[in-house]
Amino acid sequence: MKELKKTNRTKVNRTPKRAVYEKETIYKILDETFVCQIAFKIDGQVFIIPTAFGRKDDSIFIHGSNKSRMLNSIKSGEDICIDVTLIDGIVAARSIFHHSINYRSVIIFGKGKEIDEPEDKLKALKIITEHIIPGRWNDARKPNEKELEITSVFEFKIDEASAKIRTGPPVDEKEDYNLNVWAGIIPLKTIAESPIRDQEVRNGILLPDYIKDFSMRVNSSKIKE
Amino acid sequence: MKELKKTNRTKVNRTPKRAVYEKETIYKILDETFVCQIAFKIDGQVFIIPTAFGRKDDSIFIHGSNKSRMLNSIKSGEDICIDVTLIDGIVAARSIFHHSINYRSVIIFGKGKEIDEPEDKLKALKIITEHIIPGRWNDARKPNEKELEITSVFEFKIDEASAKIRTGPPVDEKEDYNLNVWAGIIPLKTIAESPIRDQEVRNGILLPDYIKDFSMRVNSSKIKE
Question: Under an 8 A CB cutoff, do A39 and B35 touch?
């Protein structure tokens, strides 16, 4: 199934022509970053917490302290909402009204499934780590028993999700194209600057190639107009 | 009052040493971007929608179509949650467990106040526009009566808010400093690329200085380590 089914929750109501339900597009957006926003309820009040995530196949994984209010809300079986938003540029139209933002965002609804078994937890933590910096898992010290115990890990199936995308130049009212106003796009992008070595790294330890690769990949990503 | 009062909703429970309730710090984070995430409820289900905002003094302003579900939820008097998150870098520790992210985030709770009077609406839309691209309001065509009518504008007082900030190098377990693992920070930052002129801009209209200034300001912003 390449296309996700629209539901009441994922159906885009405002500017539906910007909606995308195709898995490939949704996954590409998720893979371009590693921070999502999670909205959840406690006693009826909504909260948002930004958190790191990793995607593999049709799931995303998050983790955190087992004392986290957010994770306890997820644990209780609440339906939450996950948002990932990439800002690609500011769209300057001739009229204030038609100013806009070029963006790609994904929204996912569902319940989290807690991962209990230490071995499965390790697998999920590897997915998160490798989603953020591919190559890091095998280089750093793996979580020990105690660290695993105090970490909660959750999986969310990406089966109720949609993307919303705006690209391209400003669209103005016909008569406004005669105005003497500059219009266009200011592209925005995230770049990685030179890694800053921790002062206490042992002598002789060089910057790993996979971190150089990470920076190159981030910095060469093409902006979608 | 320079410091906001902690409430049950804004009190940071996880890693409270990262919490900041000082207005100046909160406003500086809000002013470094222009997109927030808004979490709201419809029939008990939580939703997140990313949206542009502007801040002036102790308020933030958002706007949108008067058909928007989010704005109708705000109109109904629901308490919502607004999140702004800036990602400053990836913190690569010697152990997987101590990997982290350098970030600055703000969370705001409250009810929105709808702005009804056309003149006040214009003032709020000017605040949003100038928050995003200072100088743009006086250059572009102002909203007309019809455009104002179909736009809903809301103000939120920033009186129940907190920031959470992580900066600096990785912090590992004492015994891990002996590991032969590279550790440090990969700084991430948002930059503006060269503005892309809309093909239908009239001949002779040059790129405005305030857009050049915008790009310079974004690109010279210093990363917090």
Answer: no
The domain tally of chain B equals 1
Rounded to the nearest angstrom, the minimum Cα separation between A52 and chain B is 8
Q: Is pLDDT above 70 for B122?
A: yes
Give the pLDDT band of residue A225 (cuts 50, 70, 90): very low
Residue B222, pLDDT score: 60
pLDDT tens digits along A163-195: 999 999 999 999 999 999 999 999 999 999 999
Plot region of B134 (φ>0 → left; ψ -120 to 50 → alpha; else → beta): beta
pLDDT bin (cut points 50, 70, 90) of residue A223 is low
Helices in chain B by DSSP H: which ranges? Answer: 23-31, 69-75, 118-132, 145-149, 209-220
Contact criterion met (CB < 8 Å) for B140 and A96: yes
B198 contacts in A (CB within 8 Å)? 169-170, 183-185
Q: Quote the mean pLDDT of chain B.
A: 94
| Inside any domain, residue A2 | no
Q: Which of B20, B163, B182, B28 is nearest to A197 (CA)?
A: B182
Report CA-CA distances (Å) from A59 to A12, A108, B32: 22, 11, 32
Name the minimum distance, in Å, from the CA of B1 to any CA of chain A: 25
- Residues of chain A contacting B133 with CB distance shorter than 8 Å: 90, 92, 186
Mean pLDDT (whole number) for A123-128: 98
* Site from B18, B78, B81, B121 to mutate, A interface, most A CB atoms within 10 angstroms: B81
A71 is a domain residue: yes
Instruction: Tell me the pLDDT tens digit for each residue of B12-48.
Output: 877 888 888 999 999 999 999 999 999 999 988 999 9
- Write down the pTM of the prediction: 0.94
Q: Is B110 helix (H, G, I), strand (E, B) or coil?
A: strand
Angstrom CA distances, B212 to A183, B141, B175, B193, B206, stand at 13, 20, 50, 11, 11
What is the CA A4 to chain-centroid distance, rounded? 18
Contact A112, A155 (CB under 8 A): yes
A202 contacts on B by Cβ (under 8 Å)? 177-180
CATH number at residue A148: 2.30.110.10
Give the structural domain span for A144.
16-220
Residues of A in contact with B206 (CB under 8 A): 182
Tell me whether residue A7 is in a domain: no
Reported ipTM: the value is 0.94
N-to-C CA span, chain B: 28
pLDDT value of position B223 = 54
The verdict on residue B30 lying in a domain is: yes
